[in-house]
Amino acid sequence: MDPCVTTHWAGSSGSLPPGPLQFARYHSWPARLRVAIFHVRIVTALAHHARQLTNSLDGLRRSNI
What we know:
This protein is an all-alpha fold. The protein contains 2 helices and no strands. The protein starts with 19 loop residues before the first helix and ends with a helix.
C-alpha cells in the first residue's frame, strides 16, 4: 500500500473495511455503481502500467543481446 495514502472507513469501529456484502446491504445502487467504476478504473490503470513495464523490460533485453 502506498504510504502517502490514508484510508478512513466510515462507520467502522475496527481497522478492517466492511466486506462487500455489508457495503451492498447498506449503500444505495448509485454508491455501489461508483465503487464498481472506481474499481474498474484502478484495474485498467494497473494493467496499463504493467504493460508499459513489460514493454520497457523487453526493450532492455533486446538492447543487451
